[in-house]
# Entry
Amino acid sequence: MSEKKKILIIYAHPEPKSFNGALLNKAIEIFQNQEHEVKVSDLYEMNFQAVATKKDFTSLKNPEFFKMQLEQRQNNMIDEIKNEQKKVEWADLVIFIFPLWWSGVPAILKGWFDRVFYQWPKLYDQGVFKEKKSLLSVSTGAPRSLYTERGLNGNISKILYSITHGCLYFCGFQVLPTSYHYSVGQSEKTAEECLLSWEERLKNIFDEKPLNFNGLKDYGERGLSQGSVHQAVTKTGQIVAIKKVPIEEDIDSIIKEISIMKQCDHVRLVKYYDSYFLDNELWIVMEYCGGGSVADIIEFCEITFTEDQIASIVKSILEGLVYFHSQKKNPSGHQSRKRTFN
Ligand SMILES: Cc1cc2nc3c(=O)[nH]c(=O)nc-3n(C[C@H](O)[C@H](O)[C@H](O)COP(=O)(O)O)c2cc1C
# Structure
């Protein structure tokens, strides 16, 4: 017997007898047969409020100026919201069952995200829910062929990226590949065929691997870097850093950064080695600076710097700037000053 798990299903469809209703019933049946614990938030049945307002809080920290993120951090939400948050905290797996409406989730479900999730202090692969899995089940009116990369409606995984990545992975969830049920009973499979493959998938859902999204650690500078940064070893055994920048990003500023890095040679500046175009990315190979950024050191070591240490950091930065000015380069805005110090 496999380990007993806790599953929360967020169900967003107004009609229990619908195909989505059948997906919900099938999921409950499968998990209960496996003796897992199941909780359901049937949003229409609960009359869940879709619109986030001041009324979501029992008291306001700043009643003069309503700033939702500030208020959410006070943990003063009304019970309707707190109950949902507790269910999410309880669950090992959260499943969202909904129809695609106007290329997105029904408003009642969007409202659930707006009101229940908030910007917890840790995000993405370090997010508060990183031990939990999540899964979307989406039914569409249009057939699969319309939702391919070159199809009329566009790539459906990109359409739902705002949920899979922007909501779920943002809060730390391991996101399983979405279950798509295309044009059920019309141009695609029958409802029975869809329910059968849904059943087969759910039976072994806990063995599945999540989607491979880039983690915060790949982006340095608390995710602010323009592209992910990876450690690599050259054939001669030298450790280098490789920054991978998607070509569709602001490539002009990257090329400018490369041309500045190429001309610089100073102990306080990151050395540039080479760059390559690979598939849809530009790979920039440069000096590897272990230790991370100053902000990372403060956060991970949970320390504050002494005045001597701050003086040493500032001295290193100034040495880099003095070199820049002596070379008549413009250092503003680009990222190549070394952030570690000795
Ligand atoms: C308000 C609304 C918007 C819809 N928007 C889309 C859409 O953007 N793309 C699509 O493929 N189907 C769309 N549909 C069709 C539904 O996705 C489809 O009817 C539903 O997934 C079928 O499942 P059900 O029988 O459980 O309702 C929309 C339906 C409604 C009512």
Q: What stands out?
A: Residues 13, 18-20, 99-103, 139-142 surround flavin mononucleotide (CB under 6 Å). The domain at 216-326 is CATH 1.10.510.10 (Transferase(Phosphotransferase); domain 1).
